[in-house]
Write a structure and sequence with these properties.
This protein is an alpha/beta fold. The chain has seven helices and nine strands. It has a five-stranded mixed β-sheet, with helices on both faces. It has a four-stranded mixed β-sheet with strand order 6-5-4-8. It starts with a helix and ends in a 20-residue tail after the last helix. The C terminus is likely disordered.
């Protein structure tokens, strides 16, 4: 009985410690997602990891999560936004499990699944560029060359063949995101610029109770 009580106390203490650490993260403060949300919901785990990796970028930066931006009188979700001294990066997260194939100019991309089953999905580069354009509409005075599209696939899939021609587009997996942030070495925005952009866009961020269910977001399934 004494051993059982000790084990319970250790578990409770560990959970209390993890909750305390989580509740002091920027992710929790701007999204409201609890430690148990991170444990139980795939989308939240992915967003938490994405933000953690983006926050590790060197230099002046701010990371934003779950921005609802109007496009033709409808709200669309930007999963994550990195405001960095090198530029403004719109991050579109795609949750796939097969082999990914696609070209930048294609309308649809292909996901090769088990037993050669093929599933098509909307070109995520086109999706992200639409989000970039919508964001530019909200920031008309910002130089358009500062905006870049970043498509991030979850680690459950494999990128087989992707063809990209634009210099302001990145397609990578979550496991590559941390190394990608290390390549951001230009200085085109000051800390004051970044703070101004953050203040201008802060009102578009939503917490866990108001986030849109968008086709472009990570599914919990």
């Amino acid at each position: 009985m004494t051993l059982f009580i000790i084990v319970v106390m250790v578990i409770v203490g560990y959970l209390a410690y993890k909750i305390y650490i989580h509740d002091n993260t920027i992710f929790y403060k701007i999204t409201g997602y609890s430690y148990f949300d991170v444990l139980m919901k795939k989308r939240v785990r992915v967003l938490n990891k994405i933000m953690h990796d983006l926050e590790r970028a060197k230099g002046a930066r701010k990371v934003m999560i779950n921005l609802q931006i109007p496009i033709y009188e409808e709200l669309h979700l930007i999963d994550a936004l990195l405001l960095h001294e090198s530029g403004i990066y719109v991050v579109n997260i795609k949750d796939k499990s097969g082999w990914i194939n696609g070209r930048e100019q294609n309308i649809e991309w292909k996901e090769l699944l088990h037993k050669n089953k093929i599933r098509t999905f909307n070109n995520p580069i086109h999706e992200t560029k639409r989000l970039v354009n919508a964001l530019q509409d909200q920031l008309p005075e910002v130089d358009a060359t500062l905006f870049e599209s970043v498509v991030v696939f979850t680690n459950d899939c494999s990128i087989q063949q992707i063809e990209i021609h634009s210099q302001n587009v990145e397609v990578l997996k979550m496991s590559e995101l941390n190394n990608w942030t290390k390549t951001l070495d230009r200085k085109r925005l000051t800390e004051e610029n970044i703070e101004t952009l953050f203040s201008a866009l802060e009102g578009f961020m939503t917490d866990k109770n108001n986030t849109l269910k968008s086709k472009s977001t990570v599914s919990a399934n």
